[in-house]
C-alpha cells in the first residue's frame, strides 16, 4: 500500500512538473521559433501568453469539475489533451498551429495541475500529508526555475521543436502509470454541484486580469483596451465575492481568506514568484543581447538559481518542523532581498557577481516554496483543502504574469531611453569627425541598425570603409580630377600618374578615417553597453524596496510553538 501511495505522489509530481515547466520553457527559444516559422514576434507572443492566460483562467473551474465528475477520469483526459497539445506545438508548420497547440496544452494543464495536487494529497494518510504537499510544492518551484535551462539545452541540441516534443515520452509514462494506479470506477459526487455564477465570474476576472498583464506593454497601459480589461476584472471580482458569499457550494470558499496563514501564503507565493521569474526572464536576454552569448550559455548562466532551489527545497521542509513557519519565511525573504540588493548593485559584466545574486534569489525561493504549499493547506480538509491548492496554483500563475508584465514593461521603457541616449551621443561624436558626409551617414546607419536589435556594436571592428568602397572612391575621385583639369583626352601615361596620385591620396585618407572611426566606434560601443546594461539593471533597482513586502507577511504565520503543537496533534 505504501509503495502504491509513493508511486501515486511521484506520478502526480510528473504531471505538475510538465505543466509548470511549459510556463517558462519557451521564452529562451523565441528567436529560434521566430526564424523557424518565419513569423513576427507579436504573433509569436500569443503562443507564449495563451498558455499563461488559459492556465490561470481555467485552473479553478476545471479543478472543481474534476471534483464533481471524478478526478481520476478527468486527470486522464487532461494528460491526453496535454500530450495532443505538445504534439501539435512540436510539429507545427505555422504560428497558427503553434498557437492552437499551446491552447490545447493549457486546457490539459488546467485539468492536470489542480487534480494532481488533490489526488497526491488525498492518496496519503494524514500523518504523511505534510510531506506529500511539500514534495508537490517543491516540484512546482523546480519546474518554473529549470524552464529556461531546459529550454536552452533542448533548443541547442534538438531544435526548438524539442521543447514541446520532450513532453511526449514523459506524458506517455504518466498515462501508463495512472492507468495502473487509478481507480477508474469513481462515482460522480451526487451532492456536489457546479457553481455556475462563480465559475463564469472567476473565469472573466482571471482572463481579463491576465490578458491585461501580458498585453499591457504592447497595447499601452492606459489604452482603452487595458482600461476596459481592468474595469471588467474589478467588476467581476466584486460580483464573484457577492456570489460566493451567498451560494451554497462556492467555487472558491471565502472561508479560505479568513485564515491569516492562507493569506500570508498567497502573498508570499505571488511575491516570490515575481522576484524569481524576473531573474529568469531578464538576465538571459541581457546575456544574449548585451554580452553576445548564445542561448544555451545564457540559460546555463542562471542555472545557479535552479541549483539552489533544488538544494534548499527539501531542506526547508525539515527546517519547517524544527524552527516553525515564521523563521523559515523570514530566512527565505531575507535571502531573496539579499539577492535583489546584489542585482541592484552588481556589475553584470562580472559573472561572479551575477552568480552571487542568482544563488541568493534561488536559495530564498527554495526556502519558501516547499513550506508555503504546506502552510497554505493549513488545517483545511475536504473541499477547503482542494480549493486552497487550486487557488494557490492560480496565485502562482498570476505571480508569473505579473513578473513578465512589470519587468518587461520596465525594461522596454528603459531601453527606449537608453537607445535615445546612445543615438544622441553617437550623432554628436560622429558629426564632430573630420570625415565625409557619406562616411558619417554610413556610420550612423550602422549604429541605428544595431540599436534596433538592442545589441552592442561588434567588438574589435577596425575597418569601416572597406577595400571595395575604397576602390569606388578612387575611381570616382580619379574621374572627377580628369574632368576638373580637362584631362579626359590626356595620354595614358599621364592618366596613369594621376590615377596613382589619386589612389595614394584616397588610401591615406581612408586609413585616417578608419583610425578615427575605430576610436569613435569604440567609444560608442562602450556607451551603448553602459546604457543597455543600466536599462536591464534598473528594473531590479526599482523592485528592491518592494521585496520588503515579504517581510511584512512573516507575522501572518503561526509561531513556532503554535505550529509544533498543531503538528503533534
Automatic annotation (TrEMBL):
The chain crosses the membrane at residues 7-32, 44-62, 74-98, 104-121, 133-154, 160-182, 194-214, 220-242, 262-284, 296-320, 327-345, 351-377, 398-416, 540-557. InterPro entries: EmrB-like, MFS, MFS_dom, MFS_trans_sf. Keywords: Cell membrane, Membrane, Transmembrane, Transmembrane helix, Transport. Residues 8-444 form the Major facilitator superfamily (MFS) profile domain. Its main location: membrane. It is a multi-pass membrane protein. It comes from the Bacteria. Gene3D superfamilies: MFS general substrate transporter like domains, Multidrug resistance protein D. It is found in: Cell membrane. The keyword Ribonucleoprotein does not apply. PANTHER family: BLR6921 PROTEIN, MAJOR FACILITATOR SUPERFAMILY MULTIDRUG TRANSPORTER MFSC. This is MFS transporter.
Amino acid at each position: 500500500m505504501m509503495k502504491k501511495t509513493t508511486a501515486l505522489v511521484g506520478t502526480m509530481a510528473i504531471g505538475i512538473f510538465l505543466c509548470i515547466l511549459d510556463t517558462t520553457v519557451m521564452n529562451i527559444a523565441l528567436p529560434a521559433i521566430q526564424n523557424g516559422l518565419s513569423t513576427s514576434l507579436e504573433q509569436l507572443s500569443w503562443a507564449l501568453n495563451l498558455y499563461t492566460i488559459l492556465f490561470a483562467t481555467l485552473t479553478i473551474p476545471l479543478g472543481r469539475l474534476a471534483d464533481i465528475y471524478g478526478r481520476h477520469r478527468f486527470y486522464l483526459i487532461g494528460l491526453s489533451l496535454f500530450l495532443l497539445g505538445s504534439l501539435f506545438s512540436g510539429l507545427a508548420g505555422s504560428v497558427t498551429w503553434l498557437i492552437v497547440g499551446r491552447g490545447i496544452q493549457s486546457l490539459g494543464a488546467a485539468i492536470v495541475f489542480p487534480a494532481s495536487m488533490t489526488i497526491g494529497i488525498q492518496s496519503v494518510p494524514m500523518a504523511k500529508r505534510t510531506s506529500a504537499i511539500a514534495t508537490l510544492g517543491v516540484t512546482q518551484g523546480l519546474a518554473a526555475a529549470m524552464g529556461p535551462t531546459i529550454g536552452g539545452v533542448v533548443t541547442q541540441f534538438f531544435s526548438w521543436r524539442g521543447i514541446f516534443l520532450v513532453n511526449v515520452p514523459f506524458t506517455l509514462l504518466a498515462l501508463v502509470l495512472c492507468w495502473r494506479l487509478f481507480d477508474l470506477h469513481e462515482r460522480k459526487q451526487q451532492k456536489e454541484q457546479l457553481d455556475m455564477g462563480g465559475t463564469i465570474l472567476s473565469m472573466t476576472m482571471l482572463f481579463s486580469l491576465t490578458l491585461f498583464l501580458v498585453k499591457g506593454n504592447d497595447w499601452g497601459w492606459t489604452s482603452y483596451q487595458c482600461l476596459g480589461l481592468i474595469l471588467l476584472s474589478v467588476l467581476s471580482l466584486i460580483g464573484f465575492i457577492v456570489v460566493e458569499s451567498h451560494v451554497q457550494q462556492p467555487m472558491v470558499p471565502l472561508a479560505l481568506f479568513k485564515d491569516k496563514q492562507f493569506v500570508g501564503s498567497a502573498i508570499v507565493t505571488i511575491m516570490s514568484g515575481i522576484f524569481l521569474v524576473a531573474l529568469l526572464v531578464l538576465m538571459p536576454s541581457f546575456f544574449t543581447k548585451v554580452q553576445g552569448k548564445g542561448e544555451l550559455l545564457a540559460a546555463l548562466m542562471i542555472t545557479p538559481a535552479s541549483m539552489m532551489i533544488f538544494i534548499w527545497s527539501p531542506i526547508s521542509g525539515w527546517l519547517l518542523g524544527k524552527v516553525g513557519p515564521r523563521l523559515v519565511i523570514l530566512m527565505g525573504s531575507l535571502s531573496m532581498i539579499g539577492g535583489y540588493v546584489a542585482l541592484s548593485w552588481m556589475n553584470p559584466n562580472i559573472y561572479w557577481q551575477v552568480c552571487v545574486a542568482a544563488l541568493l534569489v534561488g536559495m530564498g525561493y527554495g526556502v519558501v516554496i516547499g513550506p508555503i504549499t504546506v502552510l497554505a493547506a493549513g488545517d483545511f480538509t475536504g473541499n477547503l483543502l482542494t480549493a486552497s491548492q487550486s487557488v494557490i496554483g492560480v496565485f502562482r500563475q498570476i505571480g508569473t504574469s505579473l513578473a513578465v508584465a512589470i519587468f518587461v514593461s520596465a525594461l522596454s521603457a528603459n531601453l527606449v531611453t537608453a537607445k535615445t541616449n546612445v543615438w544622441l551621443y553617437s550623432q554628436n561624436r560622429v558629426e564632430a569627425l573630420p570625415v565625409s558626409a557619406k562616411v558619417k551617414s554610413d556610420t550612423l546607419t550602422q549604429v541605428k541598425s544595431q540599436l534596433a536589435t538592442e545589441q552592442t556594436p561588434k567588438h574589435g571592428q577596425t575597418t569601416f570603409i572597406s577595400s571595395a568602397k575604397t576602390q569606388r572612391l578612387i575611381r570616382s575621385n580619379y574621374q572627377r580630377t580628369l574632368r576638373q583639369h580637362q584631362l579626359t583626352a590626356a595620354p595614358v601615361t599621364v592618366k596613369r600618374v594621376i590615377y596613382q596620385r589619386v589612389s595614394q591620396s584616397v588610401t591615406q585618407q581612408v586609413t585616417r578615417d578608419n583610425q578615427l572611426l575605430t576610436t569613435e566606434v569604440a567609444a560608442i560601443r562602450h556607451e551603448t553597453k553602459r546604457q543597455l546594461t543600466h536599462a536591464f539593471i534598473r528594473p531590479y533597482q526599482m523592485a528592491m524596496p518592494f521585496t520588503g513586502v515579504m517581510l511584512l507577511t512573516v507575522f501572518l504565520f503561526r509561531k513556532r510553538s503554535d505550529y509544533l503543537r498543531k503538528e503533534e496533534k
